[in-house]
Design brief:
By secondary structure, the chain is α+β, with helices and mostly antiparallel strands. About 30% of the residues lie in helices and about 15% in strands. It has one domain: NADH Oxidase, CATH 3.40.109. The radius of gyration is 18 Å and the shape is globular.
Length: about 250
Amino acid sequence: MTHNHRDFLKDSIRKRVDFSQTGQSRGMAAPPPQKPCPPGAQKIVLAAPGSWRSIPGVSLEAAIARRRSRRLYTKEALSFEELSFLLWATQGLRPTNSTYKNFRTVPSAGCRHAVETYIAAFRVTGLEKAIYRYLPLDHALVEVVRHAGLEGHLSEAALGQRFCGSGAATFIWTAIPARMEWRYGEASAKVIALDAGHICQNLYLACENIGCGTCAVAAYDQERVDEVLGADGEDEFTIYMAPVGKVADRLEEE
């Protein structure tokens, strides 16, 4: 089994994929780049790039040098602008003159962007405590579900890692494999995992910009987190999560 896993990681996409059999090659329509909103859902428009006044900014060099996994957070809330900034930095659209309107702030294999972003908002100014889904094409949020004791639900779903419910918000990323499979077939698992890594690294660096910390988490109860989000666990399922909170100091954590 270990040998098979290593071979999968070493395989190039061209070696593994029969491109004549992909949905793209067979003329099938591509899955939508953004999960549709439920009928009648109200979109919460986020603060747009260029309008942020509370983002102090640090140099890229400083952000890279400071980047740590931080698990200790204060009770301070995130501002609406700060959350808007973090969402844009991790999955937002970047400026372009192209007619193709899905170029984002992170790279993705074939620009397929098979990852959806959910936010468990515990303490965010202007938002009720709930789970929201980010709409990158609109730079907006849509409320998904409210749970009593949301912090506890997420901590338990993260196998008792209490810091997953102690920040101001927790980012939860799901995969919709069909978006990537349309172009890359069975190699999709490899490139979706790579995409998730790009997204989370941007979150780390963006957090350093606003006095926040985060910690990437891949240990969780798959069925429990999917249930909390309302994901079906087959066509969409959780692949990664990361709590975000203000940090009292810059003490290094491993």
